[in-house]
Design brief:
GO terms for molecular function: RNA endonuclease activity. This protein is α/β, with parallel strands linked by helices. The chain has two domains: about 10-150 and about 275-315, Ribonuclease Z/Hydroxyacylglutathione hydrolase-like (Metallo-beta-lactamase, Chain A, 4-Layer Sandwich); about 155-270, Rossmann fold (3-Layer(aba) Sandwich), CATH 3.40.50. It has seven helices and 19 strands. It has helices at about 55-65, 155-160, 180-190, 200-210, 240-245, 275-285, 300-305, and strands at about 10-15, 15-20, 25, 35, 50-55, 75, 85, 90-95, 105-110, 110-115, 140-145, 170, 195, 220, 230-235, 250-255, 265-270, 290-295, 310-315. A seven-stranded mixed beta sheet has the order 7-8-9-10-11-18-19. Strand 5 (about 50-55), helix 1 and strand 6 (about 75) form a beta-alpha-beta unit. The model has no long low-confidence stretch (mean pLDDT about 95).
Length: about 325
């Protein structure tokens, strides 16, 4: 029986993204490459121009919506838990719970299991596939909120804050994933509110309606929507939110886990699609890694927390 060995350079970060030389592929590359394995369709993880794109069918649907010039033949759809090979590496997608189609990427090579999380969350969100736990020797985790001082509040209690006013609300949120989760939360816990979707958000809502797990109740925004009546919520993408200050008698709210994005708004709405400190440690306990490699954030708190228990380091560059 071959001894299982963890390779420090199995996945490294270079100017194009996260590269695995043992399978000659990139994960979430920032620029066009030959073989791209995509965790999810957010713009900081998915770009066009690759020769071959490996992703879940829902991720591909969002990429095709955004990247209309990308050849259809370049997309190679994979089911969750379906094993495929690139070089000598076996890969499979595992639900990440971040947005519809999001995936952790399990890579197996010479007996060792490397798990790249992509972005993920443990909080319930019935608009997308729930996160699944698997064991791995190396956990390659995002650390966006890997800080003991950051604990996300209950999203249900947060969304109920919107019931405190009958004034119309302009609610800023990311068009893909967050807007659909927010819409469903409003439909469920603020039933008297009417949701209007910005024209850049509405097409993503339609994809969720056709491929997702929850029916979204909303209307398409029009110029008169917020002028007549109350109890209306207008969902807008970040750029629109930050540039629109002319509306009167409108409550400004932005849905995010970042405190800086709550500044100068009329109400805070701490709803994040990333893990917080407690959920990160819950996840680590379930994965049971021997090593943790950190990406997309700061790993110093994890390194201190697991000193003498689990080896923690930033991914190699």
């Amino acid at each position: 029986m071959l001894e299982k060995a963890i390779l420090d350079d199995f996945l490294i970060e270079n100017e194009r993204g996260f590269y695995c030389k043992y399978g000659d592929f990139y994960i979430d590359p920032k620029y066009p490459v030959d073989k791209a394995v995509i965790s999810h369709a957010h713009g900081d993880h998915a770009v066009p121009g690759h020769t071959s794109i490996y992703a879940t069918s829902n991720t591909i649907a969002f990429m095709q919506h955004r990247f209309t010039k990308q050849p259809v033949a370049s997309y190679l759809s994979k089911l969750y838990r379906e094993t495929f090979e690139l070089g000598e590496v076996q890969l499979s997608f595992i639900p990440a719970g971040h947005i519809l189609g999001s995936a952790q990427i399990l890579m197996e090579y010479k007996g060792a299991r490397y798990l790249y999380t992509g972005d993920y969350k443990l909080q319930e969100d019935i608009t997308c596939e729930p996160l699944e736990y698997i064991k791995a020797d190396v956990l390659i985790t995002e650390t966006t909120f890997a800080d003991p001082e950051i604990i996300h509040p209950d999203p249900i209690e947060e969304i109920k804050k919107l019931n405190s006013t009958k004034l119309n609300i302009m609610l800023g949120c990311y068009a893909l994933g967050k807007a659909q989760r927010i819409t469903h939360l409003i439909n469920t816990y603020c039933p008297d509110k009417i949701v209007y979707a910005h024209h850049n958000i509405a097409p993503i809502h339609r994809i969720y309606d056709s491929r997702g797990y929850a029916k979204l109740e909303y209307e398409i925004y029009n110029r008169k929507a917020l002028k007549d009546g109350q109890d209306k919520i207008y969902l807008v993408p970040p750029m629109t939110f930050h540039n629109y200050f002319r509306a009167k008698n409108v409550v400004r709210v932005f849905a995010s886990g970042w405190k800086r994005l709550q500044n100068y708004n009329d109400m805070t709405l701490f709803i994040s699609d990333h893990i917080d400190w407690n959920d990160l440690n819950t996840f680590i306990a379930r994965v049971e890694p021997t090593e943790i490699w950190t990406v997309h954030g700061e790993g110093k708190h994890l390194k201190s927390h697991y000193e003498g228990k689990i080896k923690v380091r930033n991914i190699l560059k």
